[in-house]
Amino acid sequence: MRMFVSAMSILGIILAGSILYSVCLFHSVDDLSQHVEAVQACVQQEAWEDCDAAYAQFLANWDRRSKWLTLFLQHSDMDLIEDNIYQLGEYIRAQDKEQAGAYAAVIHRQLSRMANNERFTLQNLL
Fold first, then answer.
1. What's the whole-number mean pLDDT along residues 116-125?
2. What is the CATH number of the domain that holds 70?
3. Which of 25, 91, 95, 118 could disulfide-link 100, Cβ–Cβ 3.0 to 4.6 Å?
């Protein structure tokens, strides 16, 4: 009986940790996605000063959140997103509307894919 209680306790801890991880991940991805959407809106309006400010906020948010995201996510995905983030910054500084818009869309897609890959679904488990 003691072993059963121990096993159930461990299972409960693992389940609670998984739920907490999922909630934190999805909250982080939603927040980052909102920042990317703000950057996209500025790029479409060609409001480059606003773009710089929105990008700086996004970059600060990314730097803060990426520290703990690397504990749980594949580093190759994180590296790819980070490379695209810095390329986005360069295109914003160059005031290149097409490339900046494209990279913002790519980052947005990568963030949503990252969250979808971590969902507890039958497709992801198999």
1. 67
2. 1.20.120
3. 91
First to last CA, the chain: 33
Burial of 10 (0-12, 13-18, 19+ CB in 10 A): exposed
Q: What is the residue range of 112's domain? A: 25-125
Q: What whole-number distance in Å separates Cα of residue 125 and Cα of residue 120?
A: 7
Task: Please list, residue by residue across 85-114, b when 16 or more beta carbons sit within 10 angstroms of its beta carbon and e when fewer do.
Answer: bebbbebbeeeebebbbbbbebbbebbeeb
Say how far apart CA 117 and CA 73 lie, in whole Å.
10
Tokens of 9: 């306790």
Which range among 16-20, 88-92, 103-107, 118-122 shows the weakest confidence by mean pLDDT?
A: 118-122
Give the number of other CB atoms < 10 A from CB of residue 41.
14
